[in-house]
């Protein structure tokens, strides 16, 4: 098993309702859409997206780190020590085939 899993994410800051799910075809390939209430100021939206991703995958927030895209809506996050089935759970969230 690999030690990390790279997750492409499209962040929608300032959303009326926070949610994780949906697909966006972005510069890093198919990306998971994460809508957050936080504004895109001083990294607040990025931090909110990092925590929302961890929560949606049922893992500790400390296991998720930003790899690229600090100033962009299109980001890459690294998940440390992914458990078996985590990639499948991510695919279901992104493609809307279940929780």
Fold and architecture overview:
The chain has 99 residues and is an alpha+beta fold. The protein is 24% helix and 36% strand. It contains two helices and five strands, in the order E-E-E-H-E-E-H. The protein has a five-stranded mixed sheet. The longest helix has 14 residues, at 44-57. The two termini are 23 Å apart. 27% of the residues are buried.
Give a brief description.
One of its GO terms (cellular component) is cytoplasm. With 99 residues, the protein is an alpha+beta fold. It is built from 2 helices and 5 strands.
Total of helices: 2
| CATH topology type | Conserved Hypothetical Protein Mth637, Chain: A
Write the CATH homologous superfamily.
Answer: YggU-like
Q: What overall geometry do the principal axes of the alpha carbons give? A: globular
Order of helices and strands: EEEHEEH
């Amino acid at each position: 098993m690999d030690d990390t899993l790279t997750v492409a994410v499209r962040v929608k800051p300032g959303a009326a309702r926070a949610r994780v799910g949906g697909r966006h075809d972005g510069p890093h390939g198919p990306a998971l859409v994460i809508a957050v209430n936080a504004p895109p100021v001083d990294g607040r939206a990025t931090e909110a997206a990092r925590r929302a991703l961890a929560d949606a995958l049922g893992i500790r927030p400390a296991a998720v780190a930003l790899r690229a895209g600090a100033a962009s809506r299109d980001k890459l996050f690294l998940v440390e020590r992914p458990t078996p089935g985590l990639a499948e759970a991510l695919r279901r969230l992104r493609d809307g085939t279940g929780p």
